[in-house]
Every structure is written in C-alpha cells, then in structure tokens.
Amino acid sequence: MTLETDIALGLLQLVALSIPPIAVLIKMLRAADDLTWRLRKLSFGLAITSVISFIGTGAAVVVFLLGQAALPASLVAAMSLAVVGLVPFALFTGVLYVEHKRSFA
Predict the structure, then answer these.
(1) For residue 105, is pLDDT > 80?
(2) Rounded CA gap, 23 and 88, in Å?
C-alpha cells in the first residue's frame, strides 16, 4: 500500500471511532437540565457540524480509494453505505435540537 492509501484508511478509522463518542455526548446533553438554551443550541450546532464534517471526510476518502484501485462493486457499495449511514445520525441530531428547542427555549 502507498502512504496515501494508509492515510485514507486511517481517516476512515477515525470517522468510525468518533461517531460513538458523539452519540454519547448528545445523550449526556439531553440529560443535562442545568444548561441554558444558548449553550444547548451551541452544543447541538457543534455536534451537527462534527457529524457533517465526518460525512464529508468519509465521502472524500471513498472517492480517493475508488480512484486508487479497481475495487469490487460490493466493496464500493459497502464503503458508500458506511458514509451514507452517517446522514440519518446527523438528521437525528437535528430532530433532537428541535425537540430541545420546544422544551427549553
């Protein structure tokens, strides 16, 4: 493997390892009753921005890897689904934001 491929795979691992802690932080944010609405809004904005950044990173890495090697269609589909699978998480975070806005704003 080349250095670029190693870096790309490392980025995919970073994305995969970062999503569970974000989910835990969102759960903790929902349970925190003593935060002001302004701080809650900022926190949700940061979480959504983080997830969107990871979606972009994953998509860029998948495009890079597709250009580097002739991958089987099943692997291309699996990599694409992994990136697309982050989109519902970002949307879910947005739904939680709307719920919190009704509760705390």
Answers:
(1) no
(2) 12
| 49: DSSP letter | H
Specify whether the CB–CB gap between 31 and 43 falls below 8 A: no
Q: What's the pLDDT score for residue 95?
A: 82
What are the tokens at 44?
């949700």
1 DSSP 8-state letter: -
Q: Report helix, strand or coil for 70.
A: coil
End-to-end CA separation in angstroms for the chain:
52
- Six-digit token string for 79: 């990599």
DSSP secondary structure string for all residues of 7-25: HHHHHHHHHHHHHHHHHHH
